[in-house]
Amino acid sequence: MRAIPTPKTLIAALCLSAAAPSFALDLMQAWKAALANDAQLASARAQLQATRERVPQARAGLLPSVSATAAMNRNAIDTNVTSTRHYTSESYGIQAAYPLLRLQNVEAFEQSKLAVAVDETQLEQANQDLTLRVSQAYFDLLAAQDNIETIRAQMRAISEQLAAAIRNFEVGTATITDQQEAQARYDLAVAQEIAAGNELEVRRAALAQLIGQPVGELNVLRPGLTLEGPQPARESDWIDNARESNLLVQQQRVVTEIARREIERQRYGHYPTVDVVGLVGRNENPAFNQLGVRSHNAVVGVQLSIPLYVGGAIDAAVREAAATHSRSLSDLENLRRVAEQSARQAYLGLNSGLAQVRALEAAERSSRLALDSNLLGYQVGVRINIDVLNAQQQLFTTQRDLARARYDALLNGLRLKSTAGALGEGDVGRVNALLAPPQPRREESSGATPAPAPSPAPAPGVAPAPGTPAPGSVPAPGSVPAPGSAPSMQPAPQGGSKAGTPVPGLRVPPQPGSRVTKP
């Protein structure tokens, strides 16, 4: 008998499911999911499997061949000395041939094995390309998350500054210009948030397409991590490795060898071929004058074939193969140069990215100090509102650029490994070790009461709702603002604020990549 769940059991199950942690997707999980889902990688696997079947086909040209024949004929013979006679003739036979000397078949067999090596390298190349595509999509999504979180943090900070400007205007310590500047900056941030939200969904869909499943939260870079430079540290070492070990170079090197062997295969068309042949047969009524005769025969011999003249086809095929080999050599040199340039570009991009990260870390510290100074100067009256807004913008832009620079440095490190043909699962694991689940962070109060988002301007021809101030206007003292508009702050007492009175200030936004939850 099946137990019926009681209400207490259901409540306990719901509590446990609500308390269960939600795991964020990391780079290694995304990469493994893409390995099983990516269509380009699946195509490369199928191509390799098809090419492997060419090897036994080419080997068949070096192995014996056996065939059987059978024939039954109804014959009618009419001569001038006898009447028409009808009889049935039958013949059965088994033929066998074993190639002793067929140099063209030997070269075709060797070419088939080289073709498998080409497709194996192409599969490895497809694997590395997938690693780069997944990493690019993963960090693009993180950058899009950082961008929208930075914009929202900026909007909260501008809202507080807007509330402070309204309050200072009402008490007569500031002009309406401060309020209008903050309102304009907030409206611009709203437009930027809309564009950033669209970009976030596009990046999320791109990653979901690669891994074949919906994408929720992602692991983010650990705070305070230090990125290392390339090893080996010399640029020439990476360039030399790229010239010799780049996967595209390896593929073309094998293709060039196949083209060289094709010259020899076509030249062997002038050579004789030697086969061992054998035949076993049985005949019944083979001819009119042998009616009722049954015969058995067996033949074993060596067959020699020498091409004397085929209209110049062999010489033309040799010249064609030679030209193809020359083209393959040129393609090989071109790919080596491309690999050198790619390695140099990735190496310089990694080193410059690391230097940019260090510079932006210093710029972030300086921007925080500048923002604190401008905020203090605004409170004591030596700075105006636009100075604070500009300092905010500088800090937020620096934080966004710093996060993007870290992602680009990691991507350039993976690209550098790829140019040398050394990118693999271990490199994905090392980058994945730099990630950690996002930690929820509570908003730190800056002392000012945040203002709700100002209401957008009405569409042309539509009158605003009663009691709703126009965008950028100042509500009358004591009036109740419409929902969504910036609230009107009561005048602060002169001679300093009382204990507990909000001080106009600015919240320092959270680091990009962390989640913000309201308390």
Q: How would you describe this protein?
A:
With 519 residues, this protein is α+β, with helices and mostly antiparallel strands. It has helices at residues 7-19, 27-37, 39-52, 54-59, 103-171, 176-211, 235-245, 247-267, 313-380, 385-419, 425-432; strands at residues 65-77, 85-101, 220-221, 273-284, 294-305, 435-436, 440-442, 515-517. The strands form three sheets. Strands 1-2-4-5 form a four-stranded antiparallel β-sheet, with no helix packed on it. The model is unreliable at 1-21 and 442-519 (pLDDT under 50).
Q: Give helix and strand order, one letter per element, not per position.
A: HHHHEEHHEHHEEHHHEEE
The share of residues in helices is: 55-70%
Could you give a short account of the major beta sheet?
4 strands, antiparallel
The portion of residues forming beta strands comes to: 5-15%
Q: Using the CA coordinates, give the radius of gyration.
A: 40 Å
- The number of distinct helices, counting runs of at least 4 residues, comes to 11
Ends distance: 47 Å
Task: Give the total of beta strands.
Answer: 8
Stretches where pLDDT is under 50 for at least 5 consecutive residues are 1-21, 442-519
Q: What coarse outline follows from CA principal-axis ratios?
A: elongated
> In terms of structural class, how would the helical and strand content be classed?
alpha+beta
Indicate the mean pLDDT. 80
Largest sheet strand order: 1-2-4-5
Question: Could you outline the blueprint of secondary structure elements for this entry?
Answer:
Layout lengths: L6 H13 L7 H11 L1 H14 L1 H6 L5 E13 L7 E17 L1 H69 L4 H36 L8 E2 L13 H11 L1 H21 L5 E12 L9 E12 L7 H68 L4 H35 L5 H8 L2 E2 L3 E3 L72 E3 L2
Parallel strand pairs: 7-8
Antiparallel strand pairs: 1-2, 2-4, 3-6, 4-5
Helix pairs in contact: 2-5, 3-5, 5-6, 5-8, 5-10, 7-9, 8-9, 9-10
